[in-house]
Amino acid sequence: MNYKIGEVIRNNPILFDTYEMEIAGFTNATQGQFVNISTGDKSMLLRRPISISEVKDESIVIIYKVVGKGTEILASKKPGDVLDVLGPLGNGFPLVKNRKCVLVGGGIGVPPLVETAKKLKENGCEVNVVIGARNKELVILEDKLKEYGKVYVATDDGSYGMKGNVIDCIEQNQIDFDVLYACGPNIMLKFLDKKYYGVKEGYLSFEQRMACGVGICYGCILKPKENREAFLRVCKDGPVFELGVVKYE
Ligand SMILES: Cc1cc2nc3c(=O)[nH]c(=O)nc-3n(C[C@H](O)[C@H](O)[C@H](O)COP(=O)(O)OP(=O)(O)OC[C@H]3O[C@@H](n4cnc5c(N)ncnc54)[C@H](O)[C@@H]3O)c2cc1C
Fold first, then answer.
1. Ligand 1: does its nearest atom lie under 6 Å from the Cβ of 71?
2. Domains and their CATH numbers in the chain
3. Per residue in 100-158, pLDDT tens?
4. Residue 201, class by beta-carbon neighbours within 10 Å (0-12 exposed, 13-18 middle, 19+ buried)?
5. What is the pTM of this model?
6. 39 lines ligand 1 (CB under 6 A)
7. Residue 10 Cβ contacting ligand 1 at under 6 Å
8. Ligand 1 mean position to 206 CA, how many Å?
């Protein structure tokens, strides 16, 4: 390959509102890290943070949902366009070896689980994945994740997989695990934290709205459970925190 760093290699819809983009470079990234992408639009000061879904030999893959102007601009990018991308950023998911793992993704929190599942499988772990979505149309990456382990789906309306939330899915399928990895809406992370803190080892990745992406502006802070004076910067100290660390509103 002879691409420039940040060059769009492909950018295709995988759902009506969700795109998969492969970007050249950033191959030193690890599972659970993210990149912060400038849309190139001068009226839009802030970069848009997107998780790294896969790390390839000479590129990374991101998967993003179009929710506003920034992601709309990203969706319009064509192969050969060169993006201003900052990264890889954040701490990422720590890896374990030879353990039973459950990876839980809610909505657009599923993409970072792909590289994580791949690495855990390479490390001799048993990989189970639970995908939570509002309905069948919004389930993403099921086939890709099946390459690395057993995949279960839970939908809010029961239109695919089991009807219920991700915790119902773990329990009803009696998924046996030692280590939890999760990414998704704060409410899902909150319930997983409440259920498994003190019971299992676990890591939660937060997709908090953020500004600078490099720990300077404190625009993405969460409060820690223990020290009331302190802040957790999702971009720099996270986006991954252990179970029991974050205090939820
Ligand atoms: C560490 C991190 C990783 C992320 N990874 C992904 C990913 O892999 N794929 C993906 O699709 N998105 C991801 N996001 C969310 C993504 O950054 C936002 O959806 C994007 O910045 C929206 O930009 P926009 O200009 O299109 O929308 P805006 O015009 O900025 O916002 C449109 C709507 O989306 C809401 N919104 C914007 N950002 C967020 C957010 N972080 N969480 C919840 N709601 C938000 C706004 O409140 C508003 O209602 C991630 C966010 C973080 C912080």
1. yes
2. 8-89 (2.40.30.10), 100-247 (3.40.50.80)
3. 999 999 999 999 999 999 999 999 999 999 999 999 999 999 999 999 999 999 999 99
4. middle
5. 0.95
6. no
7. no
8. 11
